[in-house]
Amino acid sequence: MRVCQHYSGEIGLNKLHALDVGSSSGIIDNYLADSFGQVTGIDIDAAAMEYARTQFQKANLTFLPGDAMQLQFADNSIDVVVCTQIYEHVPDADRMFAEILRVLKPGGFCYFAGNTRLMFMEPHYHLPLLSVIPRPLAHRYMRMAGKGSFYHEKHFTYWTLKRKCQGFQIVDYSAAVIIDPEAFGVSYMLPPGSLKWRLANAVARATPWAAPIIWILRKPPALTT
Question: Of 35, 43, 54, 153, which has the most beta carbons under 10 Å away?
């Protein structure tokens, strides 16, 4: 939220329609609805959307079953898209990014957050280097660790993600959030001055390709004739 507020500046979020792609149980959407004029959460899990509707009821909050690769919204109709920790779960990330670009209004933006492939600890199964090793070995690793029979998630490297987002103008907030966690409301995860904060700073400054990604993906404004 703080990143969206910082980026949008004087443009009030309460005038904007936000679409959360992959909203799951709706917790984040309920929070977003306190700042945005309208919030729509979608998820391919229809049962999760039904649960969200029963738990979070606000006049400006809507939950719908929907597919990130086939958004049921018109071209150039959404002000802000939120896409956090989702891209590795969809079968075709390129199609998802194309759909986000399509539905955004010219000049609108997507708050995109996710991990890259080059991380030590895989966050879904807590297995070291799971996302780094070749996928056939990852499947075997999963089975040996008793975590499942198939590694479905597909993370990409920093450079591959940049290529997949080439239709957008990328504003990189990754290092800024780590350097000043208080300003961006994440000091509960990165207490300023702590060892964890110092290590995260070192990674963000020296090897940005290994740090978690926080990008604003802006749809270029419409060309005028």
Answer: 43
